[in-house]
User: Which sequence fits this backbone?
């Protein structure tokens, strides 16, 4: 399983074959995301090859983590991520590997700086 976790809460959870890895980001299918933790943002950005992105804030226990990204109408080259959500800015993405290990991926800034590390 792959999970997005912030402030001790699981924001999204999906099987490994349901997520999409793209440009260092893990995109979760819409049905895997716990919408009670999302608040619509007015932020929009444009990627030259993916198209216009919309954003949600992740809200847990009154704390806000900005900029969970999604593409409702991506360009043809990125159509595979249509409706999927990618998290960053401190939201930890962890997954189990076939050998029982747990891996994590942390994002620290809005430019997508990241690290992948073995947790267990």
Assistant:
């Amino acid at each position: 399983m792959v999970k997005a976790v912030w402030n001790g809460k699981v924001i999204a959870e999906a099987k490994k074959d349901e997520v999409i890895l793209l440009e260092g980001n893990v995109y979760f299918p819409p049905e895997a995301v716990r919408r009670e933790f999302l608040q619509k943002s007015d932020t929009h950005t444009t990627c030259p090859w993916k198209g216009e992105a919309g954003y949600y804030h992740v809200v847990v226990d009154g704390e806000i983590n900005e900029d969970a990204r999604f593409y409702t109408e991506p360009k043809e080259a990125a159509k595979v991520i249509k409706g999927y959500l990618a998290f960053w800015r401190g939201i930890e993405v962890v997954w189990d590997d076939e050998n029982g290990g747990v891996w994590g991926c942390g994002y620290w800034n809005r430019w997508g700086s990241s690290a992948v590390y073995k947790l267990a």
User: Anything to note?
Assistant: Residues 106-120 have pLDDT under 50 and may be disordered. The two ends are 14 Å apart (CA to CA). The first strand starts at residue 2 and ends at 6.
